[in-house]
Structures are given as structure tokens and as C-alpha cells.
Amino acid sequence: MMQSEDARYLKRRVKAGNIDVHPSEKAIVVSYEVEATILGEMGDPMLGEKKECQKVIRLQSLNESTDIQTLASEVVTRCKLIPITKLPEVEQLLYYLQKRKETDKGMSG
């Protein structure tokens, strides 16, 4: 029998988390978890690691005349971390961002 590397395969799983508005920018923040598992030769898990991650989706084009439904649909289509079932939630967040006052104008951050 030939000897080979102990760890042969890497299984990666991404689990979508919460979606929220960015505190100061015109952006939404998508939280997600990446779980990487190294599998042995027989497919048995040898080592696993979970990592919390965030993706910031900046929306420079968002203004008071933006069509929220169209933009939300585009965001969900482009960002694989957001399932289509979250479309209404994305619409709500975009609407909130659209109405939110620019609080950081003229202030140093």
C-alpha cells in the first residue's frame, strides 16, 4: 500500500447569517460563517475550523429616486451570500438607508 498525505481533501461550507445596514456608509453588511474541514483519505473529518466573516456591499448609486425593488433584486442576484428568500429583508434595509439622514456630513470620523 502506498503512503500518501494524511490530509487529502478540504471541504468548505459557507453559512449565511444576518444582514444589516452599515452604521455610517450607504452599504449593507452581510455576516456569514465559513466552516473549513480537512478530510482524511477515507473522507472522515480530521480538523475543522469556523470563521465569522462579513461582506460590505456599498451602494453608491442609492439616492432618494432609486427604485428599491430593482436594487434589492440586483443585490440578491449578485451576492451569493444572500438567499432569494431574504429579498424582502434587503428591500427594507435599502428603504431604511434611502430615508436615513446623512449623519456624518461635515463631521470628522
Largest sheet: 3 strands, antiparallel
Number of strands: 3
Q: Could you tell me how far the N terminus lies from the C terminus, measured between alpha carbons in angstroms?
A: 63 Å
Q: What sort of overall outline do the alpha carbons produce when their principal axes are compared?
A: elongated
Q: Unreliable runs, pLDDT <50, ≥5 residues?
A: 104-109
Defining key terms:
single chain; 109 residues; alpha+beta; 3-stranded antiparallel beta sheet; elongated
Provide a quick synopsis of the model:
The chain is α+β, with helices and mostly antiparallel strands. It has helices at about 70-80, 85-100; strands at about 5-20, 25-40, 45-60.
Would you kindly provide a written description of the structure presented here, covering whatever features stand out?
The protein starts with 6 loop residues before the first strand and ends in a 10-residue tail after the last helix. It has helices at residues 68-78, 87-99, and strands at residues 7-21, 27-40, 45-58. It has 109 residues and is α+β, with helices and mostly antiparallel strands. Residues 104-109 have low confidence and may be disordered.
List the helices and strands and how they pair.
Elements: E1 7-21, E2 27-40, E3 45-58, H1 68-78, H2 87-99
Antiparallel strand pairs: 1-2, 2-3
Helix pairs in contact: 1-2
